[in-house]
User: Fold this.
Amino acid sequence: MKNPKGCLTAVAIFLFIGVISGIVNNITGKTNSTFESTRESEFQTIQAESISQPETEKEKIKYDSLQSVFLDVDSSTGKQEIENLIKKYNLLYTTRDYNGNPKKTTYKIAFSDSVAKQDHAAEGDYLEVSFNSEDGSLTTAEYFNSKTFMVAFFYNYGTYWSFREETSGKYSGYYYEKPGDNKGGITIKYSNGNNSETGYHSVKNAEKALLNVIKN
Assistant:
């Protein structure tokens, strides 16, 4: 004959084990659920940060010394600032005074003496920056890339190819062009009523002008 107390004890132990197992599973399930929820939240945060902080063009491109000087030039730049930048980047240059409207002093800056010459220069990248000889104000800055054979330039005022302005005005700003291609850019309207179609493409800033030149 079976012992009834033994049977009751076995049943009690079985029920106790079941209750404990349920509690453990419940705790484990909640822990896993919390862990997965946290992981998902972290992933969404990382993904959101990645989307909200895109890499800019400036971070992708490493500019050389000539290009860096061009990026620093604007209408407030003077002769002393240009000479400081030339020294900072260890570049070579020549200067010359030219007649025109207005008369100007031009700095030709390059990586070598032969390219920096004002006349009979060797082929290579260069930057020309011109100032009004009388008041020292900047008139133009032109960066030429010999690989793409394109130009990025800042026009403030004065005589520069198709531009003719005695003071800074509606055409002051940054441009890029391919020499010899005089179509598709802005049309210049002169005071005498004549128009000139150009290959000068207007852009918002120096970097956009430069990127259109070096990425082509």
About this structure: Residues 7-17, 38-56 have pLDDT under 50 and may be disordered.
